[in-house]
Amino acid sequence: MDSSILRAGLSWGLLLTLALHLAACGSEESPEDQVRARITELEIAGEAGDRGAFMDAVAEGFEAQDGGMTREDFSRYLLLQMSERRRVQAQLFPVTVELRGPNLAVATFKALVTGGDGLIPDEGRLLDIETEWVLEGGDWLLWRADWRTSVGTP
Fold first, then answer.
1. Using one digit for the tens of pLDDT, what is the confidence trace for 115-129?
2. CATH number, residue 119
3. Domain contains 109
4. pTM score, two decimals?
5. In a domain, 34, yes or no
6. Is 67 left (phi over 0), alpha (psi -120 to 50) or beta?
7. Is there a domain that residue 108 lies in?
8. Which of 52, 50, 77, 49 is nearest to 63 (CA)?
9. In this predicted model, what pLDDT tens digit does every residue of 43-86 receive, in sequence order?
10. For a designed S-S bond to 45, which of 53, 55, 78, 126 qualifies (C-beta 3.0 to 4.6 A apart)?
11. Per-position b or e across 128-147, b if 16+ CB within 10 A of its CB
């Protein structure tokens, strides 16, 4: 086979691959996927003990626990949780996101949260979590959160 034909074939193959890749990158994530991605960002920030990064995703008008906790209260709560436990980890499952308008979404999920001072967690809780997210300036921000110990767990 002529090497110029082979090079032309490879060039077209590379161009086609590049075009398909760019088309896939250009596809926009759905709002539901954007909220799920934001929840993952919070999970990573929480596990890293990065309260600042976590709070960057929390809206100014945030409230939690049926209105009993403000954004400032929540920030202090995170500080307490992160300072009491050297290591905190969470497993979230399944994350269900429902749009309630163009700028509002509700996400519900369970979270297995473990923590402690050593490598092996010495405490854990299974929580039922419901969150509301608001789209502000192109970013999904946590607007409301309520959590309860999951039924059937101690």
1. 877 767 678 899 999
2. 3.10.450.50
3. yes
4. 0.78
5. yes
6. left
7. yes
8. 77
9. 999 999 999 999 999 999 999 999 999 999 999 999 998 887 76
10. 53
11. ebebbbbbeeeebbbbbbbb
